[in-house]
């Protein structure tokens, strides 16, 4: 409306507004808002600048939940819906996770442990529930397999290990690292995994018995039964691997070291 008035100054402001059935006070108020924005618009402009900075610092990965989490940690009091609106207006968007390929290979003759978790990934204290899984990271030298153990209480990665082979030694090594870094009371810890042959191997099950750890396994073909571990892979592959071509396994290990050490502090994993 103000643009139309500006395009026809020879007609006069009042006649144009009268034909549009718009009060003159409304026109002047809109014109003033363009030159002297209100406090909320000035605040939106400031927030948009900070949001754009957070988005750029994440490498264009974070969406509105991630950006909002960063702002909240910095003490910026702003609603998630407002962040979402400002990002949409600024044309900013995060990267959506892709659905990964399953790597579970079962041993039909193995004895399976019961599901002691039943999708309840909560714990009242540390070292009461550990969830574990492994995933594959492609590199120019071939697959790099990553095994990790996560504490359900803090959501932190207790231990991780990589290998060129997805075997029982890989998951056993990550368990040994976890036991070396934590004090585990016999009979109080649950070790939750899938039905993969690495987790039903004699090596791993024997070590769990020796350490007094209760073995737990999810159901077949249902990622929700081990969702806490699957969430870790989503964070890693979305924020660290997506869009990158890793030339060597050594590069993959270095990249993984920085992400797994802070996995519990990233917005997507909190």
TrEMBL record:
Cross-referenced InterPro entries: HTH-like_dom (IPR025948), Integrase_cat-core (IPR001584), RNaseH-like_sf (IPR012337), RNaseH_sf (IPR036397), Transpos_IS3 (IPR048020), Transposase_IS3/IS150/IS904 (IPR050900)
Domain of life the protein comes from: Bacteria
Domain Integrase catalytic: 122-270
Function: Involved in the transposition of the insertion sequence.
Protein name: IS3 family transposase
Species of the source: Streptomyces lycii
Organism ancestry: Bacteria, Bacillati, Actinomycetota, Actinomycetes, Kitasatosporales
